[in-house]
Every structure is written in C-alpha cells, then in structure tokens.
Design goal:
By secondary structure, the chain is an alpha/beta fold. It has 18 helices and 18 strands. Strands 5-6-7-3-8-9 form a 6-stranded mixed β-sheet, with helices on both faces. Strands 14-15-16-12-17-18 form a 6-stranded mixed β-sheet, sandwiched between helices. The chain has a 3-stranded antiparallel β-sheet with strand order 2-1-4, with no helix packed on it.
C-alpha cells in the first residue's frame, strides 16, 4: 500500500525527517504520532500529493488514485440547510448522474471506444463504493456513530463534533483504498469520541490517522508510526504496549549508558596518567599507548547511546507562580446564569470557584460550555462576579483571539514586555521552541505549537485564575501529560472546558457536568466512575491507576540511576499491561 525508503524532506538546511523508511500494508489501521512540529501533517500531505513536494528517497503509494482525506479543521462549506442524510447521499447521486449522462451519450455517439472505457471506470468506482447499497450503508454508519436521530437535521444545526463525524462518515462511505485523517478527534466530546472509535474499528480498509488521543491510540489501532527527531519508528500494537516497550528500552539504555560512562571515566583517568608519564619520560612506547587509549576513548564517546524515541522532546510547561491564598477565598461566583441563542442552552446555572481549586466544565458538544466561559472572561454579565483578589487570564481554542497571526514568535513576547531575544529564548526553551524558529510567523505554526505559545504567554503573566478552553487540543501526547502535571502543580485556580477524559481525571478536583440544560456539580471520582461504568470494564480503572503509579515510580528510579529497581517495577508493569489488553 505505502512504501518508503530513505525518504528525506525539509526546508532549506532544516530536515523534518531524514532517511526514514516505512511500509503500510492493506487493511492496516495505523496511528501516526509524534511531538508538535515534528512533521506529521507534512508527511501526510506528501503521501497525498507527491508532485507538490521536492524530496529525496523513494515513496510508492499503491492506491490507484483512490485516497480519502479528513482535515483536522471542521469546515462549514456548502449549503448548510442540507440535511445530514442528503449530504451523505451527494457523492452517490453525483456518480449516478455521471453514469446516466455517459449512457445517454453512448446512445447517440459514433465513437464508443472512449465512452465505453469511461463507463467501465465509472462502474468500477461504483462497485468499489458499494453504490448499489449506499442508502443502507448510510443508515448503518449513522447508527454506528450514534447519529441516527440526526439524519433529518440540517447541517447548520449540528455541533462541531457532530459535523466532524458526519464528514468522516462521508469519506468512509466512498471506501477509498487509503483513508488519511488529521486529528479527527479534536474537540469531540466523549460520546462523539466513542462514535469515532466505533467508526474506525468497523472500517474495512487502510487507515493512516494522526492522533494524540490516548483513548483512540489504545482502542483503535494495531500499528503505530512514531515520527520524532527526524526519524520514524514502526511498532505493531497499541499505545499502551508501545509505551511499555519504550519504558523497557529506556531502562536498557540507562543501564548501558551507566556502564559506558563508567568505562569512559576509567579510560579518561588512564589517559590522564599516561599523559603525565609521557610528559616526564620521553619514550615512544608511552606515546603509542597514549595514542591508542585516546583513540579508544573517542570511539566510546562516538557510540554513546542516542535514543530519539526514548528521550522524547517533552515540554516543561510552567504556569504562573502565584502567592498562596486562603483555600476558602472565593474568586468567582456565577448566580442564576442563563444562555440562549435560537434555543435555550443553559438556565439556572450557579456555582463558585475558590482559590487553588481545579474545576472542569464538561458536557456534550453544543451545550454552551465555551460560550459561558467566554462570558466569564469578558465579565460583563450580571450573573458573573469576580472577587477583587481574582487576577484571571484566558486560553482560547480560537488562537487568533490571543495570538496575532501576523506576528513572529519573538514579537508576541516583545508585545507583552520582554526586552530582548535572549529573554524570549530563555523562556521558550522549556516549551520546545528552537531558538532559530523565533522569526517564524504565528500563522505558520501548527495547532499544537500555537497552543504551546499561548501557554508560554500565560506562564509569563501573574494570573491566579486561569480560564482554559480546550487547552489539550492539538497538543501531542507528551505535551498533554506535561500540561496535566503543570495544572496539578499550579497554585492558582483553574476553570477549564475539556473533552479529554485523561486531562479531566488527572487534573480536576470538581466537575461541573452539563446535564439537561443546567450544571450539576460532582466530584472527579464520581465522574470517573460514571464514565468507566459506561465505557470500560469494571477492572480497567484500577488497572490504569496502578499503571500510572508504576510508571511514576520507574521514572523516579531512573532519575536516581537505580536500574535494578526500575526493572523490577517494569516487570510488574508488564503484568498490568497484559491485564489491560484483556479488558
């Protein structure tokens, strides 16, 4: 299906990937993962349209031109008054009309050879799409995504997540030889994410999907491509298995590095002694011995272990350092809030956020969460009251609200008080921005890089209350974990809208759950149990908690160079991973 050998691509002297080789067989479901800015979307685009790029190496894509693509962005082009069902019928009706036109033309044309060839190609396409059964296939796909009740609804009335699923269904119905999707899970609520999971798992074809969703990585894919530090690694299995294998490899490399370091130290000391002797005794034998040991030392240094897929470029996200406040101090109170557009979305909403509290606003797409968060940020609604002690800051899923797309990265920080390039470099080094990239325009950044840039700007401020709208969207898996750690360590309060289950359960103390047009407070533990009861086996939660605890302890052992204990814990982790696979 896809075959690459020593593929190299980059801009000027900077390579996104260099001499990478990979292959993808038919009917494989492959996830493409990697750090933000590592070149995942570029690789997908190169596979889609080789002629648009200049690259070195070999790349063969055997799809007979039948490729499908779903963008990471939800577009609302075309007639939005069209119903979902009619929208999904459009490709089949257009094909049917084209076949009818060719048949009509064949009835009056004297040159049938060209028309017969075109007719056969159209019939082949119709067969590949199973066009004779398209109505049943549409109903089946809508049912699989739990959108059957939306079939007669106009597109304009769908939430962003629902529209994204409908667009994915349309591409799947075409049954391309290769379907590529770029972050199809972004902004999907948990119910829609399950719909996407079921669509992917039921798809009988080849999939190549960029995703940072740990949920999808664990439940949908049997193959992983990891693009990192200019190289690509292939792995058969899901993300949990891959994470375990990386951790085991990290222990092996750490142990080998310690042995190598000890040998380097021993030989270095020997070289120093021989130099001292050579300086005092003018004998050729000592000079030859010294030269040999220096050569051996250089070989040791040259083969020190490099691990592009083990030592991941994970950002060290740091939120503002704030002074401690009394835990009972109330920073925000919302009383009897209501939200309406054409229909009433929220009514009788009341809650408070206190100093240091981490609160997640959770609910289905289109229930008014983001709209309410924006009104809280604007602070011009009679139901919204900030205390005098509150110093809020806002993170927007619409990057242009916070970032000037025409600015360079450097200019973004100059505009908030940074005085020189050195200050900006020092601040951004924790966020994985290359100093050479500070001249890039904000508009040229990936979605994940824009998120990191927003977080870096937040960290430069003094806010004690963060309003975060989908902060983990577009972030790579490793940056998501870093963000969760940063939120947990942040001394201020947080009110965030999120659909990412892991971000919610790893960060939030309290959940504000949108239910029947109002908000129901619940503990993070109660929310976690509710989700697991509906979507996971009864043992999965406990196994996942044990897994996270073991991974944390292993990381601590590696920091202390205790490889034996790290291996002992990793053996325990292997048993947990095996049980999770069975669940």
């Amino acid at each position: 299906m896809i075959y690459a050998e020593k593929l190299t691509f980059g801009f000027q002297s900077t390579y996104l990937f260099q001499n990478i080789s990979f292959h993808l067989e038919e009917n494989c479901h492959c996830a493409l993962m990697g750090s933000n800015g590592s070149g995942k979307t570029t690789l997908l685009n190169l596979i889609r349209d080789q002629e648009a790029y200049t690259f070195d190496g070999k790349l063969k894509v055997n799809t007979a031109g039948r490729m499908g693509y779903v963008s990471q962005f939800v577009g609302r082009e075309g007639d939005q008054s069209t119903t979902v069902y009619d929208y999904l019928c459009q490709d089949f009706l257009a094909l049917e009309k084209t076949i009818e036109d060719v048949c009509t033309e064949m009835g009056v044309s004297e040159d049938l050879d060209v028309l017969m060839e075109r007719y056969q190609l159209l019939m082949d396409e119709s067969s590949a799409m199973d066009a004779d059964n398209y109505e049943n296939n549409i109903r089946r796909q809508l049912q699989l995504a739990e959108l059957s009740d939306k079939a007669a609804l106009e597109l304009e009335k769908l939430s962003g997540g629902e529209l994204k699923l409908v667009q994915i269904i349309r591409q799947m119905l075409r049954r391309p030889a290769l379907l590529m999707m770029d972050e199809p899970d972004v902004f999907l609520d948990f119910e829609n994410l399950n719909g996407l999971r079921d669509l992917i798992n039921a798809y009988q074809g080849t999939l190549l999907v960029i995703t940072h969703s740990r949920y999808l990585l664990n439940h949908c894919f049997d193959h992983i491509w990891h693009l990192e530090n200019g190289d690509l690694q292939e792995f058969e299995g899901n993300f949990t298995e891959y994470s375990y294998s990386r951790l085991q490899k990290k222990i092996d490399l750490k142990r080998a590095a310690l042995i190598n370091d000890e040998e380097i130290q021993r030989v270095s000391e020997l070289v120093d002694r021989l130099r001292d002797i050579a300086s005092e005794v003018a004998e050729s034998q000592h000079g030859r011995t010294l030269k040999g040991k220096v050569s051996y030392l250089n070989r040791l240094l040259e083969r020190q272990i490099k691990a592009p897929f083990v030592e991941i470029r994970q950002p060290d996200i740091r939120l503002p350092a704030v002074e401690e406040m009394e835990e009972a101090a109330e920073l925000l109170r919302v009383e009897d809030y209501a939200l309406s557009f054409e229909d009433t979305l929220l009514t009788s909403v009341s809650f408070a956020v206190h100093a240091g509290e981490k609160v997640a606003l959770v609910g289905a797409n289109g229930t008014g969460k983001t709209s309410m968060l924006r009104e809280i940020w604007k602070n011009d609604h009679p139901s919204i009251h900030f205390s005098e002690e509150a110093a809020p800051a806002f993170f927007s899923q619409l990057h242009a609200e916070i970032l000037n797309e025409h600015n360079t990265i450097y200019e973004e920080f100059f505009s908030i008080g940074f005085e020189n390039r050195e200050q900006v470099e020092a601040h951004l080094q924790d966020y994985c921005f290359d100093p050479d990239s500070l001249g890039r325009k904000v508009s040229a950044l990936s979605g994940g890089e824009k998120n990191l840039l927003q977080l870096a700007k937040l960290a430069a401020g003094e806010a004690n209350f963060l309003l975060l709208d989908e902060p983990s969207s577009h972030l790579d898996t490793f940056a998501q974990i870093a963000l969760e750690d940063a939120i947990a360590a942040y001394g201020g309060a947080v009110l965030m809208v999120s659909h990412d289950f892991y971000t919610i359960v790893n960060c939030a103390d309290t959940i504000l759950f949108v239910d029947n047009g109002t908000i129901r407070p619940m503990s993070a533990r109660a929310f976690r149990k509710m989700i697991y009861k509906k979507h996971f086996s009864k043992d999965y939660l406990e196994l996942e908690l044990q897994k996270k605890d073991l991974e944390t302890r292993i990381a601590r052992c590696l920091e202390n160079a205790d490889c034996d204990e790290a291996q002992h814990l990793c053996d325990k982790l292997a048993l947990i991973v095996e049980q999770m696979q069975q669940n």
